[in-house]
Amino acid sequence: MADSSFQQEFLATHNSYRAKHSTPPLKFNSELSAACQKWADHLLERNSLGHSDTKDGENVFTMSSSAGLKLTGKEAVDAWYSEIKDYDWKNPGFTGTTGHFTQVVWKESTELGVGLATNGKRAFVVGQYRPAGNMAMPGYFEKNVLPKGNS
Asked: Which of 10, 107, 141, 149 could be bridged to 73 by S-S, CB 3.0 to 4.6 A?
């Protein structure tokens, strides 16, 4: 379960990245977090990654280690944001290799929830966003996924 320090670090990491893209900070939503936690528990139970059927935006992450692990709230967000290297700023839009990044910085998303499930060797993190990002209508990526330092 995502404790308050995990939740705070998860939110702070999102908002730090969003600030680099002149995007307003997200607010923590406990209702979204309850849904995230339920889905993270389900992923751990079935031991495989996948998306829920939420209407909200969703990023999922897993990590495992035979030596055991203690995941921080920053690690999943860093992994999602690292997809920025593959984002084509000249041809904005959704791709399967950059969708986590674009959801992290999506300007119109205002709320965030998080869930964490772990057995000590494998962890699943679920982040949900409201309203959902990655909307593929014309012009939406241009106005929601801003380059660093632009407002």
From this structure: 10
Check if the beta carbon of residue 23 is closer than 8 Å to that of residue 32. no
Distance CA 66, CA 1 (A): 20
**pTM of the prediction?**
0.94
132 exposed, middle or buried (CB, 10 Å; 0-12, 13-18, 19+)?
A: middle
Q: Does pLDDT of 95 surpass 90?
A: yes
What's the pLDDT score for residue 149? Answer: 82
Asked whether the predicted pLDDT for residue 150 surpasses 90, the reply is: no
Q: How far apart are CA 68 and CA 56, in angstroms?
A: 31
SS (H, E, C) 2-59: CCHHHHHHHHHHHHHHHHHCCCCCCEECHHHHHHHHHHHHHHHHHCCCCCCCCCCEEE
CA–CA gap between residue 116 and residue 61 (Å, rounded): 10
The span from the CA of 128 to the CA of 43, in Å, is: 15
The pair of three-digit structure tokens given for residue 14, joined into one six-digit string:
């999102």
Express each pLDDT in 97-146 by its tens digit. Answer: 999 999 999 999 999 999 999 999 999 999 999 999 999 899 999 999 99
